[in-house]
Amino acid sequence: MKKFLPIIIIASLIIGFGSGFEFSQFHQSKAASVQALINQDADNVQNVDFSEFWKAWDILQSKYVDKSKLDLQKMVYGAITGMVNSLGDPYTVFFEPETSQKFQEQISGSFGGVGIELDEKDGVLVVVAPIKDSPAQKAGIVTGDKIVKVDGKDTAGMAVDEAVNTIRGKIGTKVTLTILSADGKSHDVSITRDAIKVPAVDWKMIDYNGKHIAYMQLYSFSENIDSEFKAAADEILKSNADGLIVDVRGNPGGLLDSAINLAGWFVDNGQLVVSEVFGNGTRNDFKADGKSQLKKYPTVMLVNGGSASASEILAGALHDDQHIRLIGEKTFGKGSVQELENLDNGASLKVTIAKWYTPGGVNISAQGIEPDIKVELTDDQKKNFIVGDPDKDPQLKRALDALR
Questions:
Q1: Which terminus has fewer CB within 10 Å in the chain: N or C?
Q2: Which residues are catalytic?
């Protein structure tokens, strides 16, 4: 199974509850009461009273006015969703089969929609980053924008996954997002949905004050990043590069394994990349397993509020292990690990299993990562901002100066 660190979305009821009952036993008599939950581990027994659940189930079966709407499977999924939502963790999510398929499409690097990575902060939907060349980016959506309505529907209290599924739709159709910008003003943005191809890596050479600086952008940690990063790194190693800038601004993260793999290009074999700490106090230390071929280049990293999850893992490892300077703005602060468990009938559960810490002991979820050199953009700079253009990207220009 794969472990995810995405900002972004996954059984029967009995499997979800961990008991050994079959679905056919759901419709109990009114006197039915389950008072002991027996787990697969015989030494782990909790006293649980399910009598209220069974009473509610029976009342619906016997008294609900519209019997045609008593879809037992939907009721089961609804019960699981309620159980998961009671945890109050926006990253632990139950996916019904259709939603689960969409999530699988997302992490595979191709899906339909408008191209926005979303997260929830303080009950508000926040744009972590628009995907490069996506309809959302072309429509002017930027990191930090708050989505307060989708097609007129208020998003207050809406789960990230529900919002994602609402925004997605058939290619060629439109969705209207009501955006609250950083200036406190709201406006509607109509966006035409399209097939979204998620790029992973891009790079170019920048000649700056007599130096040849390889500028590498990492857009996401999807399943194709390892191969694309290797291809780009091999080209850089064959070039006349004098230094390297790694840009994870607006990168919402993705696969944990890829973050560890990429760290191996910079960090000595065996050095700590990230620590995974579970609820029972146990921990896994993930160490670099590579040849650190890019270590020879003077390197800086660009980060901002859209750098999240796997991006923060990579930034934390390079900063703590190699003293690579971080330039830009404080990262998003998404420091928990999700694991995808496949359930029956195509459903799945994305569950938070641990929190992670940088080699220097920073709990990213609680703090985010502060840059060594803070470069915040003014409103005028944001209006004229072009990523990758030293004349219109002040953070990139500062990174180039730092390597000079």
A1: N
A2: 309, 320, 334
